[in-house]
Amino acid sequence: MKRSRPKRRKSGGSLLPSWWGILIGVFLTIGVCALGFWYFFVSPTSFRWAAFEGKTDWPEGYEVAGIDISHHQANIDWDRLRNCNVDGQPIRFVIIKGTEGTDLFDENFNDNFHWARQNELVRGAYHFFLPDKDVVRQADFFLKQVHLLEGDLPPILDVELRGRKPLSDFRCDVLKWLCKVEAVYGVKPILYTSYKFKEDYLDGPEFADYPLWVAHYEKKLGYKGEWVIWQFSDRGKVDGIRGRVDFDIFNGDLRALHDLTLRPNMAEPTE
Questions:
Q1: What is the pTM for the complete model shown?
Q2: Sheet strands (E) in 70-163
Q3: Which residue range is the domain that position 132 belongs to?
């Protein structure tokens, strides 16, 4: 069927050509997409702000540098990493992805976890939380696959996704994971999330006592509460790692970092 031409009004005026409507719709769509991209990936409260700006300036007033890694960093040259520095500061700690959901074990975890200790770096391990998966199975999976030792950071829960459950159920599940893992290690796990996500979904009093590792990709941290680690960029470059890596800083000196680690009665037997 042929498309009919726009009808002309009897008064002599004419309707706007149909392609004008299409053009306006295209511009509106582009505008909405651009606004959504800015909000979720570029705005200072998003996770990926630095990925757009490419900023890796070291925030002033902090001296204990760290990174967090997973299989995305591929093969790491640990000799070079151990001897590198960030703005004059050596890398002191490495946080490593261990598990995700109920059945995903990071393929590089065992090697990364082993070599971090061999190179005398304070190491930590985290679980990536999937809100629509069974929370007890998630906690059990992490405990089965990750075995923290004396000198390691407390277990870490990475919460970035909201899921489809009611907010009260979501918060209950996050707390359930934290409590179950805390019961095994006898220490409160560290909670990782973004500044914006923390304010929107995890800012209740039930989470106030858990050490916070907060992601906010700015030179100054906007979060006003207490925190122990700040992930300030995902565009870091260090010797020993080919691609980009997340940069972290510890809120304290080196002694305070070691004070945060597991004591002998909190950890499993030595390797």
A1: 0.79
A2: 85-86, 89-100, 104-105, 122-128, 156-158
A3: 56-266
Name the burial class of residue 117, with classes exposed (0-12), middle (13-18) and buried (19+) by CB atoms within 10 angstroms of its CB.
Answer: middle
Classify residue 71: in a domain, yes or no: yes
- 6: in domain: no
Phi-psi region of 240 (alpha: psi -120 to 50; beta: other; left: phi over 0): left
Q: How far apart are CA 146 and CA 128, in angstroms?
A: 13
Residue 202 within any structural domain of the chain: yes
- Per-residue pLDDT of the chain (271 residues), as tens digits, is 434 444 444 444 455 556 776 777 666 767 656 555 544 444 444 444 443 334 457 788 898 999 999 999 999 999 999 998 887 889 999 999 999 999 999 999 999 999 999 999 999 999 999 999 999 999 999 999 999 999 999 999 999 999 999 999 999 999 999 999 999 999 999 999 999 999 999 999 999 999 999 999 988 888 888 999 999 999 899 999 999 999 999 999 999 999 999 998 765 544 4
CATH of the domain at 129: 3.20.20.80
Q: Are both 178 and 235 inside the same structural domain?
A: yes
Do 84 and 43 belong together in one domain?
Answer: no
d(CA 172, CA 200): 15
- Based on the fold, state whether residues 40 and 124 are members of the same structural domain: no
Annotated catalytic residue, options 68, 100, 106, 246: 68
Q: How far is CA 193 from the centre of its chain?
A: 6
Question: Residues 116, 205: one domain?
Answer: yes
Q: Check whether residue 163 and residue 35 sit in a common domain.
A: no
Catalytic residue (choose from 53, 140, 150, 160): 160
225 and 144 in a common domain: yes
Q: How many domains, the chain?
A: 2
Active site residue 160: yes
